[in-house]
# Entry
Amino acid sequence: MTTTVAHQIMWNRLISIVEEQAQALVRTAFSTSVREAGDLSAGVYDASGRMLAQAVTGTPGHVNAMADAVPHFIADIGIETMRPGDIYLTNDPWKGTGHLHDITVCTPTFHQGALVGFFACTAHVTDIGGRGFGADADSVYEEGLHLPIMRFASEGEVDRTLLQILRANVRAPDQLVGDLFALASCNEIGQRRLVAMLDEFGLANLESVAAFILDNSRRATLERIAALPQGRAKGQMRVDGYSAPVDLVVTVDFEGDRVTCDWTGTSAPDPKGINVPLVYTKAYACYALKCAIAPDIPNNAASLAPFVVTAPEDTIVNAVHPAPVALRHVIGHLVPDTIFAALDQLLPGTVPAEGAGCLCNFQMSVRPVAGAGPKGRRAEVLVFNSGGTGARPGLDGMNATAFPSGVMTMPVEATEQTGPVVIWRKELRADSGGAGRRRGGLGQWMDVGPRAGHEMTLSAMFDRVDHPARGRRGGACGGATVVALDDGTALRGKGRQAVPEGRRALMGFPGGGGYGPAAERDPAQVRRDLALGYITAGTAAEVYGLTEDEITRIEAAARRGELD
Amino acid sequence: MADGIRLGVDIGGTFTDVVLEGAGPRQSTKVLTTYAAPEDAIVEGMHRVCAAAGITVSAIGQIIHGTTLATNALIERRGARTALITTEGFRDVIEMRTESRFEQYDLNLTLPEPLVARHRRYTLRERMDADGGVLIPLARADIEALADDLAHGGYDSIAVGFLHSYVNAAHERLVRDVLAERLPGVMVSLSCEVSPQMREYERFNTTVANAYIKPLMKSYLDRLKTRLRDEGADCPVFLVHSGGGIMDLRTAADFPVRLVESGPAGGAVFAADIAARHGLDRVLSFDMGGTTAKICLIRDQSPKTARVFEVARTYRFKKGSGMPISIPVIDMVEIGAGGGSLAQVDALRQIRVGPESAGSEPGPACYGRGGDRPAVTDADLALGKLDPEGFAGGRIPLDPAAAAAALDRDLGAPLGLDTLEAAHGLAEVVDENMANAARVHAVENGEDLTVYTMIAFGGAAPLHAARLCEKLGIDRCLVPPGAGVGSAIGFLRAPFSFEATRSVFMRMGDFDPAAVAALFAEMAAEARAFVRSCDADAPIGSEHKVYMRYSGQGWEIPVTLDEAEARAPDAATYLARFEAAYAALFGRTVQGMEVEITVWSVNAATPGPPVAPLDPLPDGADMQASLQRDLFDAGSGRVVSAGVHRRADLAAGATALGPALVTEEETTLVVPASRGLRVLADGCIDIHARATP
# Structure
């Protein structure tokens, strides 16, 4: 076999190994965030900690974070002390993936007596103690237990003391411990495959394969960058923040053989937990740039290197310890839209309008009301949901679809099995897609409440209440987030709030912005939107100019199951 | 049931395969599929094989039929005018899917359209809770009012899916009763019957798919029955389902979604039968045709089964780009790797193969029919695996120069490889793709492939099977005769079977032996009654399974129980079975965790046809090839001189050492330098690793 062909085969094999690793994690995990929603990542590294392949999972936020994580483990543990059977872990927001709820597990792999590489994986756990998952903390100390880089197992022996401390400090100890074991097992499966591959190809280590992967990736990425027009542009976006609006400001520069992205001008950290460690900002910035410039090149140390992301210290996108960071995803998920505002100037006709951006997540802490009797139970129920994506230059936005995050929603039936809650409604929200030549994706309605005999708090993690997704090139804004109780009590977009027994929280999640002027929308598409109920008769008349007769005709046809 | 004369019929995308057994030697034929009236091809094929066997069609005792018509109707969206009735507040479940993107980096992604568009999705005010308690009762008057609206819609078929109906189906059944009164001509599919499992998106989508193809399949099956009778074949007709078992015409017409992928299921049954004949407990079935390859694990002579799969993938066979169908199904991976799969060099200067296929028109470059891009078949030709004059019995002369030109231009030039290296690269990539798919599939099932035997069939499989074995560390591969019509033969080996499933949630801490025994008894009765309706006499066996997990996990693993454990349930035994299965899959159990059962299943089946044991065979002649051909041997990475044998000349017991090529009408078996071959008593060719000196 020629060396080139062998190297190609091994590259493919490594990608397949990390996919297996990720799959094993989904199958064995306990938290619904991992097993139903896919909030996890998995990767393989060479002996010096360079990432060679990463599973394509639901979490672009882990992209660079994972690439940076293993060098931190090497530095803090020390190569010379590593032994077969060791397993390390951390949830350090600044060395892992941005908040205490993500636990990263790293396992050194030995072959023929020598260290040949590492496997690492990350998963979002439902609870890590502290105040519980939400925006309300004033510092990271309140957000839960912080595990610095340390040994989870030494030469195969799991640290029982660590497990005891963990169990004593979290609300769902079985889930957390179960997830830790799942993380450890999935690295183990990766290791088995890697050693088998080295045996099959008669290699002592990964050096030549790593060089091949990294050289090819670097070259392919540089070719893409070389094809870009040189130039610089600024993108800005104002979003809700916790109590005061936040300005995100970025300057993207296509200069020579790299793309830089600097966040000077962005707001200072928020007093509450929506601040972002730089590693997470880098991840979503790289993700946005790669989508537009090099979507088909796999993520590894070399393909990520030409994308340089910087931010002044002590801004909301480069928050430093001990800033509260639990909901770093809220601002982090809005990073791509900010970058797209700049890219639209540099690469016209490439990027979408603004979308819902951050996931529309909330956590419900349910407990029995006084005197509820034996059927009452406590539960922590976390759900992920999505608004609409921004309209694309040639396509409408996607309805209720995660972007930039790629996680899945949990099935309603699975969520209702995990705790005494009822989701009364989960469906598309008419008129929430921003009008335009291409319409923004629709957001969704969600109504939830505790089951009889229970009350709950709802920890809201929403943005775009006061700052809906803006359209691009003449397109209109998407619908803004709305939250209230069914008795009319207004709720805030962020923070923990009570939902008493018998009440429901009514939530409207945001739609994506439109692209191009609404007047240019294909009339057939407008008629279809009306027939399907994506827009109401009012919007059809006022925004798109349909006549009363047309509307009557289309609605009558739709009732007969016909499109006009 | 195996007595008498039986006809197996597989309608595929290109060919309708017909196989006749029980009247002398097996007869088989291929007829081009007749899309407008698929029964035409069946009738033609039936007359052909009957004539060849010298019998009249009235002598046929049973017809077993499988078809891609259901799959194709879903892929091509040629279904009925269908409405969905669902719980108020959940009109968009089938449209919102999992709210995720199946491809992370594509800004211009298009999501698949739901089978039933939004204006044909209706809601009723009703609600069950997660335990099956009624939160909002369903008013009969509401259903009646809705029925009037539906009447104006002129629907042929209606799907009904309510939340938590897998625990309490009362509301769905009430809807059916009212619709039966108000809209008597309209077909109704209930989610509690089509797919009674938790997770609303999968359940609703499966129900909608069923409703969508029901009128079409019912009309086809009715026509087929009449036509066969008119032609003189007035015998029972049975259908093969996705799980590889057989069901009667009426069940097939009620639950046509169970016909999806019945062809590939037949292939797996074919391989399972060969496994049984050769006493093989761990078999990897490898079916490679022109467009895709299908890989399936067969343990103890039964194909692995699953409860969800995805049909009609819209984006490079990518997981998530199709629609989930949750029914009992033979668990296989299908990837875009076949003889016609096309290769190119991507931005990373890597060779990529498939899923785009040259098909039969224009075909690979070497067919000389206008195709100019390199396909897997072009690489196989350049590597010496195929004889340019002998392909398809000499009917399709292959053009080596055209193959070389395509390989040079699209792969060789950009990568600086000569023709042979380019061909080798292409073949290695496609083989590696299939090997990776097999490995991932094995891992998901906790299996170690090195102790497996491969059974290879389908036109392209014999060219690639031995190399795949080298990659997977598999020592032995069987290539059966009749491999070109494997699925249709498999139909004749399929048992009558029915799997009854229930989603009933039970924590081991609340284990209720009496309730469990009653549940199993009820399911066994349901499954056995069905099988009995197909075959009045055969003994019926039952397999009991529970799907278990640690409380808090979302994915269950199957745990098999024996009859006694189902009849006299005992928590400790169930727990022990689960822990053993979990440790085998994932390396270690998780201590101190509550365990729960989510799904229960009973599969009732008639035993397969008796397995003809093979006579032990003395080693026959070591065959000397009369002809030699240059062959690139991927394992050793060099060109070797391979002996060429005609399969027809190889008697039972004959042996030969690799490198060798065995030619037959439709394909060529490649035996690499690392392997030898031996012809077995039933005509299977055994390609095995040569003992290392």
About this structure: Chain A has three domains: 3-218, 352-515, 522-564.
